[in-house]
Amino acid sequence: MRNFKILVPHLKHYKKDVICALLAIIDSAFASLYQPKLLENIQKAIMADQK
Predict the structure, then answer these.
(1) Per-residue model confidence as pLDDT tens for the chain (51 residues)
(2) Number of compact structural domains in the chain
(3) Taking the model in full, what pTM does it have?
């Protein structure tokens, strides 16, 4: 926590960049978590079409 307090004054100059980076990381995490569900839906659609 001490290191974070040291960084905060320097990060204020890059507030937009830090926020954009955090949003990109969150977006990437959600996309990675959603991908298996999407592939499952595709697989089910293919299997339903073959019957």
Answers:
(1) 788 888 888 888 999 999 999 999 999 999 999 999 999 999 999 999 876
(2) 1
(3) 0.64
